[in-house]
Design goal:
This protein is of the alpha/beta class. Helices cover 41% and strands 11% of the residues. It has a domain of 174 residues: Rossmann fold (3-Layer(aba) Sandwich), CATH 3.40.50.620. Strands 3-2-1-4-5 form a 5-stranded parallel β-sheet, with helices on both faces. Helix 2 packs across helix 8 and helix 8 crosses helix 9. It starts with 5 loop residues before the first helix and ends in a 15-residue tail after the last helix.
């Protein structure tokens, strides 16, 4: 478009450059307020406009909601929603220790920790939001250390991505929807300690406020499998762990 003065042209070019050339792609991130999801957000934030979603699914660890809200503010995420799906607790019955208050939480991996297709449930809702917002990425914080969890493996992520895009294939072909990519740090070959170093470099001691514990306690129990994994990650990353634990010992 013709400009009356060179100055006007420069101003318009500058505005275009700021609003278009540097416009970040939208991404949805499943955001629990835990170490993995917070560090995953830090990793993605330079490249994506992040819209976070936290799920209240009847888990014992109700500190997750509070810390998710805290870190959405700290990281200045574009948007943060909390999805109440507490009805899942009843549907899960006695299948897992994370939602059943009468089952004891183990200190080592046990299949009782695995909530039936939890990530599939989360990803279905997150991807529906992604299709609605024309976001091109849906991320969750599964990493290389999560190999024991079937719905954290890259093979699962790839298959569910294919299923979601197939479910919207006509809308994608007609231009009403954008294809989504389901992404995890696991796919990128990142470990928990790798993520921790990335997060710590950006937010420093705030990292110790992330919530990892499976239990409903005021501070980390230090005994459950998730707390143990957290301690090991700090050890491997060579970062002094200032997290407060009820039990400070590390048993291998």
């Amino acid at each position: 478009m013709w400009c009356s003065t060179t100055f006007d042209c420069l101003i318009k070019q500058f505005i275009w450059y700021k609003t278009t050339a540097f416009k970040l792609k939208k991404a949805i991130i499943i955001f629990s307020g835990g170490l993995d999801s917070v560090c995953t957000a830090v990793y993605l934030q330079p490249k994506f406009e992040l819209h976070a979603i936290t799920f209240s699914y009847g888990q014992k660890a109700n500190q997750e909601m509070r810390m998710a809200k805290h870190f959405s503010r700290i990281l200045k995420l574009k948007e943060h929603k909390i999805a109440n799906i507490k009805f899942m607790k009843e549907l899960y019955e006695k299948t897992n220790v994370l939602t059943n208050s009468k089952m004891k939480i183990p200190s080592k991996f046990d299949y009782s920790i695995v909530v039936p297709i939890r990530n599939a449930v989360f990803l279905s809702i997150a991807s529906a939001w992604a299709f609605s917002k024309n976001a091109q990425l849906v991320a969750y914080g599964a990493h290389k250390g999560d190999e024991k969890y079937p719905d954290c493996r890259p093979s699962f992520s790839k298959l569910i991505e294919q299923a979601f895009n197939e479910g919207e294939i006509d809308g994608i072909r007609q231009g009403f929807r954008k294809k989504v990519k389901v992404w995890t740090p696991f796919i990128a070959g990142l470990s928990k300690s790798d993520l921790l170093k990335i997060g710590y470099k950006r937010i420093g001691d705030e990292i110790f406020k992330t919530w990892s514990c499976y239990d409903n306690t005021k501070i980390h129990c230090g005994r459950c499998e998730s707390c143990i994994n957290r301690k090991v990650a700090f050890l491997k990353a060579r970062i002094h762990d200032k997290t407060k634990y009820e039990n400070d010992f590390l048993d291998f």
